[in-house]
Amino acid sequence: MTVANALPGIAPPRPIPINDRSSIVFVEKGRIDVLDGAFVVVDAGGVRTHIPVGGFACLMLEPGTRISHAAVALAARAGTLLVWVGEAGVRLYAAGQPGGARSDRLLWQARLALDETTRLKVVRKMYALRFKEEPPERRSADQLRGIEGARVAQQHGVSWDRRAYDRADWEAGDAPNRCLSAATACLHGLTEAGVLAAGYAPAIGFLHTGKPLSFVYDIADLFKFETVVPAAFRIAGKAAKGRLDLPLESAVRRECRDMFRKTGLLDRIIPAIEEVLEAAGVDRPTPPPDALPIAFEDKEPSGDAGHRG
Question: What is the CATH number of domain 18-95?
Fold first, then answer.
């Protein structure tokens, strides 16, 4: 008996590791499909724009975007995260999950998060990496974030008091906070792609808890003030001086893209995840003696550890 191939066509190439990819592409008001074997966006006039889907870590799909089954399947085979977001990326509605294939890493992450001793060790390591010093004794993390945020804003000539915006009325927010929201959305999308590629669960956080992306927020905070916060305030400063030629959100995305490349962020996300979890001093779990063996031996996964392909 001949078994039909579940995925038609030629075998896909080995997925590109996450640290060798470009960061993020935003798509709005277009139909995403696979035409003539290529991943394309088709606009209202029928013009095709080719996207090398396997070369990006994440595709952010904004309002007005439709995507076919074939396009979703191709993105999954390439290990590229699809995220459905609201205007300017400030609200996340849904996300595909090409990663998460390593149960040993998921169990290890859950074990560390459930034990209060190991959880605090991970949190203290996050603070040390984030602030380049031991966790504060007298100031809270929120106070340190506020002080650093005000300092970065002042460097770029921006008047900023606190983080505030209304999700129900995006345009009502001031320029600095709109820039910060758009920039943070870029960072969260890229970090989620890294978390999944490494084989971990976005929801199992250590400092942040109770959210679908708690661990994503934990890891993103390690890089926020050296990447997207300066990028956001740089664009807000240009807007305040009338030196901006692009819409605010578009300028922020381009600035973030350049900042991600300049800081080598994709090369650093997965090593940072491993570093903070290893601070707990607990080895990854091994299968229990009475665990059932694998019924059908699969070939070694291609791409990153968390890739399902």
Answer: 3.100.10.20
